[in-house]
Amino acid sequence: MFPGWARRGLDAALRLLLPERCPACGAVVRGGGAGEPATVCAACFADLVFAQDPRCNRCGRTLPAPGAACACAAGGPIRRRRFALVYGGAATRLVVACKHADRPDLAGRLALWMARAGGDLLAEADLLVPVPVHWSRLLSRQYNQSAELTRHLSRLSGRPADVALLRRLRATPSQGHLSAAARRANVAHAFAVRRGRGLAGKTVLLVDDVVTTGATAEACALALLAAGAAAVDLLTAAAVPASA
Questions:
Q1: Taking the domain 4-239, which CATH number applies?
Q2: Is 244 a residue whose pLDDT tops 60?
Q3: Per-domain boundaries in the chain
Q4: Is the omega angle on the peptide bond into residue 54 within 30 degrees of 0, that is, cis?
Q5: What is the pLDDT of residues 201-213, one digit of tens each?
Q6: With contact defined as beta carbons under 8 Å apart, do 235 and 120 qualify?
Q7: Can you tell me the mean pLDDT for 92-110?
Q8: Distance of CA 33 to the CA centre of its chain
Q9: Global pTM?
Q10: Residue 6 has pLDDT above 70, yes or no
Q11: What is the DSSP string of the chain?
C-alpha cells in the first residue's frame, strides 16, 4: 500500500493527464487546471445550500428576516460562529471526501467559500488556529483537513496562522452517535495550547470542517481562553442543520 503522500502525488499526476471529475459525484467537469481549486459540477453546485444573510451574529445561521430573534443556544466560550455551507447532500460529500477520502486538495475550494462567509471574522482575527487531530489519527490519515483549510484561509486573508498551536491530548471516540451531553463529556479537557505560544489579548479564529453540536470547538475555545486569548470565534466549512 502506498503512503498517503505517494497516493496524493499519483492522484495529482493523474488529474493532469485525465479529465477532471467533480469531487462530489464523479461527473467529468472542465476544471481550472493544475494547482487550481477542485471544480464542482453544475448539478452538485446547485445542490449546495450556502449560508445566507441575514445571519445570527452568534450562531451564524440564516434568520427569517433582518433583526429577527434567533432561538439558538450559542454563546459560552465561542463568541461568534460562521459557516459556508449547510451540511447535507453535495456539501456532505465534499466535506467527507476532504476528510476521509485522501483529498486534502478540496480544502482550497472549501476555503474560498469559507472566506466569503466569514470575511468579518477573518478581518478581525489576530491568529487562525485549526482544531487538531490526535497524533495517532494524523499518523494514519497523514494530514489534518482543518489544518489544510487554515493554511488556505491564511493565504486568502493575509492573517497569520499557527497550525500546531493546539494539541489533542487524547484520542477521543467518534462523536457521530453521541448525544450533545455525551459529546461534551467526550472532549472535555481533551485539548491544550502548546507551551511558549503567546496568546495574551489576541482574537483567535478557530477553523474546522464541520460543526454539529459545537462540543469539540467549545473544548478548544476553553483551552485557548485559558491560555490568554481575549476572544475565540469559529469558522467552519459546513454546519449541521439546527433541527438535525
A1: 3.40.50
A2: no
A3: 4-239
A4: yes
A5: 999 999 999 999 8
A6: no
A7: 93
A8: 24
A9: 0.88
A10: no
A11: ---HHHHHHHHHHHHHHS--B-TTT--B-----TTSPPPPPHHHHHH--B--SSB-TTT-PBPSSTT--------TT---EEEEEESSTHHHHHHHHHHHSS-TTHHHHHHHHHHHHTHHHHHH-SEEEEPP--HHHHHHHSS-HHHHHHHHHHHHH---B-TTSEEE-S-PPP-TT--HHHHHHHHTT-EEEPTT---TT-EEEEEEEEESSSHHHHHHHHHHHHTT-SEEEEEEEEE--TT-
Buried b (16+ CB within 10 A) or exposed e, 204-213: bbbbbbbbbb
Cell of 217: 470547538
CA angle 193, 194, 195 (to 5 degrees): 115
Looking at residue 10, its pLDDT comes to 60
Given this model, what pLDDT does residue 129 score?
Answer: 98
